[in-house]
Design a protein that fits this description.
Helix content: over 70%
Strand content: under 5%
InterPro entries: DUF3392
Pfam family, one: DUF3392
Order of helices and strands: HHHH
Organism: Idiomarina tyrosinivorans
Keywords: Membrane, Transmembrane, Transmembrane helix
Protein name: DUF3392 domain-containing protein
Number of strands: 0
Distance between the termini: 32 Å
Largest sheet: none
Structural class: mainly alpha
Radius of gyration: 18 Å
Number of domains: 1
């Protein structure tokens, strides 16, 4: 079992950055509607053009900036996990994301 865990971690390590981005992108998909609803409430009384500009800024730049800025942070945290546990942690995170998506009726 230990050899499998180490082999799986060795296979995952080159993809840590991609895995981190996938985790964050999934969280943005799961919770994006909540963020959009909050922003929509805040700008409900604004003119159409203002609402549109704010929507574009939040979705294109806000979500993009979050993804670009936080991916290295998550990747750094994942690289600090001992190799023997890395595969289990990554699979656990994916299961947690699936559970969160199911709970938010995203699946």
């Amino acid at each position: 079992m230990e050899q499998f865990a180490l082999s799986f971690a060795a296979w995952l390590k080159p993809y840590i950055h991609n895995i981190s981005m996938m985790i964050l992108a999934t969280l943005l998909v799961i919770y994006g509607n909540d963020v959009n609803a909050f922003v929509r409430k805040q700008v409900a009384n604004a003119a159409f053009i203002v609402r549109t500009i704010i929507f574009v800024l939040v979705c294109a730049f806000g979500y993009g900036l979050l993804l670009v800025a936080l991916t290295p942070v998550v990747a750094s945290a994942l690289t600090k996990i001992p190799s023997i546990y890395l595969g289990f942690v990554v699979v656990g995170i994916f299961l947690l994301l699936g559970w969160l998506a199911e709970r938010k009726k995203q699946m």
